[in-house]
Amino acid sequence: MKNTVVIGAQWGDEGKAKITDILAEDADFIVRFQGGCNAGHTVVYNNKTYKFHLVPSGILYKDKVCFLGNGVVIHPETFEKEIDELKSQDVDLSGLKISPLATLTMPYHIDIDGLSEKAMKSSKIGTTKKGIGPTYSDKIARIALKVQDLFCDETLEQRLDVILPLNNFILEKVHNTKTYTKEEVLNYCKKYKQILEPYVCFDWQNLIREFKNKKILFEGAQGVMLDVDWGTYPYVTSSNTISGYAACGSGFSVSQIDDVIGVYKAYVTRVGEGPFVTELLDKDGETIQQKGNEFGTTTGRKRRTGWFDAVCGKYTALVGGVTKVALTKLDVFDDFEKIKIAIAYKDKRDGKLYKDYPTNTFIHKYLEPVYETYDGWMKKTSDIKDFEDLPKNAKKYIKKIEELLEVPVCIISVGADRTQTIYR
Ligand code: GDP
Ligand code: IMO
Ligand code: MG
Questions:
Q1: For burial by CB atoms within 10 Å, which of 14, 128, 143, 397 has the most?
Q2: pTM confidence score
Q3: What is the pLDDT of residues 409-424, one digit of tens each?
Q4: Peptide bond into 358 cis (omega under 30)
């Protein structure tokens, strides 16, 4: 295996965790480099379902190091819950390590996220309310706490004297709500210092040195269309989700990245607000939602659904630097008579055609998809192991996608289980 970055190439929930879990078998080091507990990652193996929000999806293999890099934001309570749940499923966490440079999501971040959404009314983003935006805002504004701050009383006290009044100001003056005392926050920090301590890797520089020449798998969260620079801004998350961030958020360098696997569903889903040109509000959309069991892992919200969007797909392959495609959930189409792919957008106002993705998302409400329609295969694919054994029309659909994206489809997923995977 080459050093590989796995990224979502749509709006998240593409099945990144399944692909990461599979690739992790050949990796030595698996690192999450961005996002936080807004992520909901599911791995199915041996009839058991494992859910991850922060812990890298490679943790099911015993002999690997799984690292939460500096680019990740960590909500300590969610971390505690997640490791308790994994321990109850007999998952060995001895390879789990946390960068002391990762940023902490604090209780006031969660409050501010929810309150901001409420204040924005109909313009809300539809966030996961996990404090992601406020945490990354504080990080960039240089008023965040890092994991390492928990381990130095003097730093923590000094930092809180600066940080807390600013966050309390927002809570009190903007949202007219409860503020936090320094004592409350210090107690919180004391409690979660103990929970995090066994995992924090203060010797991370040696860790990076040790694994520099081994096999590294970078696990992305969210998807390129949710990237804060490249996505459907402002309806995005607050981190960079593209492969370019893998080095920045992990401690490895860009020269150590060989391959980028872009994970695409055979259709598209989106949770939360924001433009979605191929969204289906009809029976087909409902059928995809039901057959694909499209409910958010983190919030339980119904995912919006639509046909595969090759305009977006080509764009995310470009800015994400995708070198190989993993196409998931092909089985969801097993009994669809007709399947569509958007190959362009048309502006309803003047008929203008867009073959390249228009980055001004405010005009998306005027765009309609230009579809090509394909015959379905009307056969069960979930037990198929070889590409050549797939029904003819399924192979045609896959080949069409790689032709449109101009990137080869190398992995095809036909079910949630680790074994329901076709390599090409
Ligand atoms: P992630 O956030 O990209 O890791 O994706 P999620 O785990 O949030 O959502 C993907 C869902 O689809 C999970 O419930 C997976 O178990 C499931 N899944 C993954 N691949 C396939 C597939 O090929 N077919 C089917 N039917 N389900 C899949
Ligand atoms: P995984 O890693 C799907 C969406 C939210 C919202 C927007 C901003 O499982 O693919 P945030 O809480 O990040 O400020 O919300 O981003 N979102 C996701 N959608 N999958 C995810 O993660 C997501 N993480 C955030 O629904 O629209
Ligand atoms: Mg998910």
A1: 14
A2: 0.98
A3: 999 999 999 999 999 9
A4: no
